[in-house]
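Standup notes
- DV: blocked on the single-chain target, sequence here:
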Amino acid sequence: MVVLNRIYTRTGDRGDTALSDGSRVAKHDPRVEAYGTVDELNATLGLCRLVAEGELADRLSMIQNDLFDLGADLSRPDLAADADAGHPVLRVIQSQVDRLESEIDAMNAALDPLRSFILPGGSPLAAHLHLARTVARRAERRATDLAAGGDVNPAAIRYLNRLSDWLFVAARVANVDAGGDILWVPGASR
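- DV (later): unblocked, structure below
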């Protein structure tokens, strides 16, 4: 286990940073953008957990741990070199995606069918979850952009795609006790 006694290292003072394989890239590199946005998403989920309770809070905690796995996955550029790493390489796996799908199905089963787009908001928890959903979508865009020009684990992209769906449905669940979703009314302000 790595011990972090000193937080600053000064190694990035020139605008570059180390990836998990030891290579160095610019701090604005698409790979750093991708895992940095996943970190932002994780912090946003921390805000969600401030107002979440019970099983939903537990699920958010598990997702936050998954996001550390995902950040580690995105920070390692060469999928083919995993076997030669000399140690286990942390990658997002399909069972993590499957778990999200199962939870989405369970949450969605208790909801009324959607017949309209909904506006982000409602209860404080739903508003936080909708914000996290938009950050998850941005993280997915960063990861797919990275995949277009680099090596990215396909399960990582599937996880981000499913997570934004999970957050949408969780926001709807959070709004059940708050009187329901806020429906979009096209042209309402004309």
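- Follow-up: The chain has a mean pLDDT of 89.
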